[in-house]
Model the fold of this input.
Amino acid sequence: MSRFGDTFTTPKPILGMLHLAGDGPAAKLAQAEEEARIMAGEGVDGVVVENYFGGAEDVERVLDRLFGFDLGTRIGVNVLRDDARAFALAKTYPVSFIQVDSVAGHLPPEADEAFEAELAARREGVSALLFGGVRFKYQPVLSGRSESEDVRIGAARCDGLVVTSDATGQPTDMDKVARFHAATGGGTPLLIGAGLTEANAAEQLAKADGAVVGSWFKHDHKDTGRVEPAHVAGLMRVVRAIRSDA
Done:
């Protein structure tokens, strides 16, 4: 079994985003705990603590809080614009996975070699899985390589690829998922990184190995909203049906 399968024993794992919204550190911490408890209670397989609306210090506060009790689900981290901090936190807290928005394709060739070496060095001594993006939403494409070559290089640098289209909440292009699958020969787990909904989950998870869900869980299905228990429960019902039919 792969490291991905060792960590997520349930097929098609769903990872919920904690965007760390709230007015001030205390409010961010309280909202993150509430949303993590909602997701865990509805059977979400993991939560991603991300500084989408907060800072790296908020990420650490939330990790410290969540690891202070038995949440019953996997915990991961994504420190936007500061990958080094994410790996440092993974050495301090027993996170199951790290998400990095781009592991290949976003840098010109002269910078990519140093990035590859730096990423490998950061992974040393860190047991957490690494999920990375290639041609991820909002990331530049500067490699001068073909998409398939970027995908193969990215797959070699991490334990799973997170695939998106161009924007938060935008459904992930299934043709793109198919191209990524072909480029990796099916040997690397692919996670839908944006736009998964109750309506398209069956189609998207038929082609992918799991998903990271943010906007759909919010009360208005927008990234600025608060997590709505009914939306989490609704999607997880669909996911459980997909799993039982597989």
